[in-house]
C-alpha cells in the first residue's frame, strides 16, 4: 500500500471529479493510505467489511474530538455495542417501517402544501420542497417548533462544512427543549426519550439532546440530499420520468438506484481496535479508516456498467450503511422521497432544469444546495 500525496477533489462544483478520482483509486487498489496516514477503502467488499465488523472497526471516534465529548454523547453513529444496541433500541421503536408507514398521510399533506406555494415558473427545489419537507416532518416528530426551520438549515449547512459551532448551537437549542419537556412532557419523541433508559438507567438531558440533534440534523439532510439527487438524475433522464409517470409503482426502485449513484453521504469513518488485515494489507491499531460508500456503490465488479441508471438492478447498494449502524431513518427518508417524487410526477408532464448553475455541498454531504427547476404541467 503506497503512500502518495493525493487528496479527494472538492465537490463544490459537482460530483464528477470526485467520482473519477474514486474510480481511479479503486482501479489501483481497494485500500490506500494517504500522506496523513488515513486509510481509504474503495472496494465494495472491503467497504462492507468495514461497515459490518464493528469489533475490528470501531465507530467511537471521540478520541479524535478532544473537548467535544458532549457532542459525541448520544450520537449513535459514534458508538459501539453494548451501549449502541441499548440506545438504538430506545429510539428505534419510533422508526420501524410499520410506524413510519403511518406517517404517509401527514408527509403527503406537508408536501402538497409546499408544492401549492411554489412559483408558477422556476423555483429552487431545495428551498421550496427538498429541505422544508423533512425538516417539518422530523421537527413535528421531535416536538420542536417548525417555525425554527431556518435555524435548522443554517446549522445543517455548518454541519456539512465541518463547523463544530453549528453542532454546538443545535445541541444547546435541543437541550433547552429537552429540559422544558422534562417539566411538561408532551406527545413527541423527546418526551418519550425521557422515559427511556439504558441498562435500567434513565437518559440524561445531554444525551437526549444529542440523540435529538442526530435525528434532526442527519435525518433531514439525508432526505434533502436524496430527494434533490433524485430530481437531478431524472432531469437527465426524461425517458425515466415518462416511464415513472406511466408506472408510479416503480418509484421506490428508482429511489434505490438514486441511492446507489448518489448516496446522501459519500463516506463514513471508523478506527481500528487492533491490528487487522484488509484486502491483504495490515492496518495497525488506532488507524483512522475512511470507507467510501460512493465508491463501493459504483464498483463495477458488483454493479456492471456502474454509471448507467438501471431501476432493475438488485438492491445491493450501501448508501444507508450496513450492519448494526444501518441508518435508523432509512425508511422515513425513502418514504418522504417517494411521496415527493410521486407528487411531482402527477403535477408535471415534464420537469426541466437546472436553470441556474447548481450549487453543491462539500463532501461528505453529497448533493445540491440549490437546484432551480421548471415544471411543465
UniProtKB/TrEMBL annotation:
Recorded GO MF terms: heme binding; iron ion binding; monooxygenase activity; oxidoreductase activity, acting on paired donors, with incorporation or reduction of molecular oxygen
Assigned keywords, A-Z: Heme, Iron, Metal-binding, Monooxygenase, Oxidoreductase
Organism from which the protein derives: Saccharothrix violaceirubra
Family: Belongs to the cytochrome P450 family.
Superkingdom to which the source organism belongs: Bacteria
InterPro entries, sorted: Cyt_P450, Cyt_P450_B, Cyt_P450_CS, Cyt_P450_sf
Record-given protein name: Cytochrome P450
Amino acid at each position: 500500500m503506497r503512500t502518495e500525496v493525493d487528496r479527494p477533489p472538492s465537490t463544490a462544483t459537482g460530483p464528477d471529479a470526485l467520482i473519477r478520482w474514486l474510480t481511479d483509486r479503486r482501479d489501483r487498489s481497494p485500500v490506500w493510505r494517504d500522506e496523513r496516514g488515513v486509510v481509504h477503502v474503495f472496494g465494495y467488499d472491503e467497504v462492507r467489511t468495514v461497515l459490518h465488523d464493528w469489533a475490528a472497526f470501531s465507530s467511537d471516534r471521540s478520541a479524535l474530538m478532544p473537548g467535544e465529548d458532549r457532542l459525541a454523547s448520544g450520537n449513535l453513529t459514534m458508538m459501539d455495542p453494548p451501549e449502541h444496541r441499548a440506545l438504538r433500541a430506545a429510539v428505534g421503536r419510533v422508526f420501524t417501517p410499520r410506524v413510519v408507514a403511518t406517517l404517509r398521510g401527514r408527509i403527503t399533506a406537508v408536501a402538497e402544501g409546499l408544492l401549492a406555494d411554489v412559483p408558477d415558473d422556476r423555483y429552487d427545489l431545495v428551498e421550496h420542497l427538498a429541505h422544508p419537507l423533512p425538516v417539518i416532518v422530523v421537527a413535528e416528530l421531535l416536538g420542536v417548533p417548525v417555525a425554527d426551520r431556518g435555524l435548522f438549515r443554517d446549522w445543517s449547512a455548518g454541519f456539512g462544512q465541518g463547523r463544530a459551532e453549528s453542532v454546538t448551537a443545535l445541541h444547546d437549542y435541543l437541550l433547552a427543549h429537552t429540559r422544558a419537556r422534562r417539566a411538561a412532557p408532551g406527545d413527541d419523541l423527546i418526551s418519550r426519550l425521557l422515559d427511556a433508559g439504558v441498562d435500567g438507567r434513565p437518559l440524561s438531558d445531554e444525551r437526549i439532546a444529542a440523540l435529538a440533534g442526530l435525528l434532526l440534523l442527519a435525518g433531514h439532510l439525508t432526505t434533502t440530499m436524496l430527494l434533490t439527487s433524485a430530481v437531478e438524475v431524472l432531469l437527465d433522464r426524461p425517458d425515466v420520468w415518462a416511464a415513472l409517470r406511466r408506472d408510479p409503482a416503480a418509484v421506490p426502485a428508482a429511489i434505490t438506484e438514486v441511492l446507489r449513484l448518489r448516496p446522501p453521504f459519500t463516506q463514513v469513518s471508523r478506527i481500528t481496535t487492533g491490528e487487522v488485515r484488509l484486502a491483504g494489507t495490515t492496518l495497525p491499531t488506532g488507524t483512522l479508516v475512511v470507507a467510501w460508500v460512493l465508491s463501493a456503490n459504483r464498483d463495477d465488479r458488483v454493479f456492471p456498467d456502474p454509471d448507467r441508471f438501471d431501476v432493475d438492478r438488485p438492491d445491493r447498494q450501501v448508501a444507508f450503511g450496513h450492519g448494526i449502524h444501518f441508518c435508523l431513518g432509512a425508511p422515513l427518508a425513502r418514504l418522504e422521497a417517494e411521496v415527493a417524487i410521486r407528487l411531482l410526477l402527477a403535477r408535471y408532464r415534464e420537469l426541466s432544469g437546472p436553470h441556474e448553475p447548481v450549487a453543491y455541498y462539500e463532501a461528505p454531504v453529497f448533493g445540491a444546495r440549490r437546484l432551480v427547476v421548471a415544471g411543465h404541467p
